[in-house]
Amino acid sequence: MKFKANDVREDFLNFFKKNGHMEIENLSLIPQNDPTLLIINSGMAPLKDYFTGESIPPSKRMCNIQKCVRTIDINSVGDPHHLTFFEMLGNWSIGDYSKKEAIEFGWRLIKDVFQIDTSKIIVTVFGGDKSLPGISADMESFEIWLNYLPKDRIILLDADSNFWGPTSDTGPCGPCTEIIFDRGIKNGCGKVDCGPECECGRFLEIWNVGVFMQYFMHEDGSLTKLPMNCVDAGAGLERFAMILQGVESVYETDLFIPLIEVLTNKIDINKNKREIRIIADHVRASVFMLADGIIPGKTKREYVLRRIMRRALLYLTILEVDCQLFWDVSQVVIREYSCRYPELKDGEDFIKNVIFSEITSFNKVLSKGLRELDRIIKSSTSAVISGDDAFKLQDTLGFPIDLICEIAGNKGMTVDKERFNFLLEEQRQRSRK
Ligand code: SER
Do residues 35 and 75 lie in contact, with contact meaning Cβ atoms separated by under 8 Å? Predict the structure, then answer.
């Protein structure tokens, strides 16, 4: 294998260190002094105060590899490239270099260091957006890209694709430019208008090579200028590994092969590829969150962890496999990743205890909840589970709504989420009073 994941990490850091960047610490997934964010979701999240000028960075040029968790795409996990936990390769300029250098660094790394076939590269640039009337299209980046690529491979897109941030409701944000790898027609939908915005999987974003952090978003959505121009760039290690190892999904990279192997010893991958991927991703995410001291619970980041753990446990249950397999995969995660993340090995006993106690409480909730849900489904005259039934299941039995939706979906049914949310809000109002 030409580029093992660890080579990708090392080559990335060495490249930026050679170019004057200081390597900074990879921080805990628990945000420090940031009440706006539950879990670190990007490399820049712990660095926000540098962008606003509230803190002075140790260097104007920095780089690192940061543990991140994002659950916004949790329902897409299982496809070739979506994950809840990932390692973000990041480089930053705090009032130092700007667009020209950021793009040049990106190009040199993929072309000279990683030797990616650049005929498969296209890039996207912020092309303006009606919702952001004061911010014009980033023609400066467009012009810079013309030094490297023909015009037809530089695509202008709107804010949905090319305006990044903030990490929560407020914070630094700005237009961005992304490097996309074209995986070829065979990996896509084949439609004539298929392009980087299409969800079919042909076009894989590999690097947000520059968020040009020029604005601060306030609670009301208004933007003010930041005191200096900064660059925030980030790439998912797993996606780079997928491209560099020439495989079809992140799950076939060396980052996942040993985890998948434990699962395929017990589960038929030909019939259950998506489920195996979901379990592998969720176990890996859980182990990292546990190692940082998060424990599964009912609210906030504790709930995020519980949801991920229970989703993996649910799939093990659906596949009729002993939930102990969760721990078996966890052990492999600890073994494979401890070299770089010693907190996993240090926390092994704690991680094990929490996993087994979560399995016990999950099984209690599950057997009661499944019985009740089964009764509801059998007596239902339509393909919709009522919001009242779903609410009762969650409220009285602790059977989470996500699991209800998941099981309903697997049976071709839906849940009346609108009514469910209404009842939930009503209950919140009552308890506030
Ligand atoms: N913060 C940007 C992202 O997460 C670039 O790192 O995509």
Answer: no
Is ligand 1 within 6 A of the CB of residue 42?
A: yes
Q: Which residue has the tokens 């379990």?
A: 279
The CA 5 to ligand 1 mean position distance, Å, reads 20
pLDDT of residue 432: 62
Atom index in ligand 1 nearest the CA of residue 44 equals 1
CB 286 within 8 A of CB 310: no
CA distances from residue 296 to 60, 140, 300, 337 in whole angstroms, order as listed: 38, 46, 10, 22
- CATH architecture group of domain 5-247: 2-Layer Sandwich (3.30)
Q: State residue 133's pLDDT score.
A: 87
The C-alpha atoms of residue 387 and residue 383 are separated, in whole angstroms, by 13
CA distances from 106 to 101, 207, 209 (A): 8, 8, 6
Q: Is the CB of 90 under 6 A from ligand 1?
A: yes
The closest residue, in CA terms, to atom 3 on ligand 1 is 234
* The predicted structure's pLDDT at residue 134: 87
Minimum-distance ligand 1 atom for the alpha carbon of 90: 6
Q: Is 73 helix (H, G, I), strand (E, B) or coil?
A: coil
Atom number in ligand 1 closest to CA 164: 2
What is the per-residue pLDDT for 429? 81
pLDDT tens track for 98-157: 999 999 999 999 999 999 999 999 999 999 999 998 899 999 999 999 999 999 999 999
Q: Which atom of ligand 1 is nearest to the CA of 167?
A: 1
> Which residue puts its alpha carbon closest to atom 4 of ligand 1?
42
Locus of tokens 């709504």? 401
Q: Give the pLDDT of residue 317.
A: 87
Q: What angle do CA 194, 200, 204 make, to 5 degrees?
A: 90
Q: What would the pLDDT profile of 35-60 be if each residue is shown by its tens digit?
A: 989 999 999 999 999 999 999 999 99
Name the stretches of the chain with pLDDT < 70.
Answer: 431-433
Where do the CATH 3.30.930.10 domains begin and end in the chain? 5-247
Q: What is the DSSP string of 229-268?
A: EEEEEEEEHHHHHHHHTT-SSGGGSTTTHHHHHHHHTTS-
Rounded mean pLDDT of the chain?
94
Kindly state if the Cβ of 43 falls inside 6 Å of ligand 1.
yes
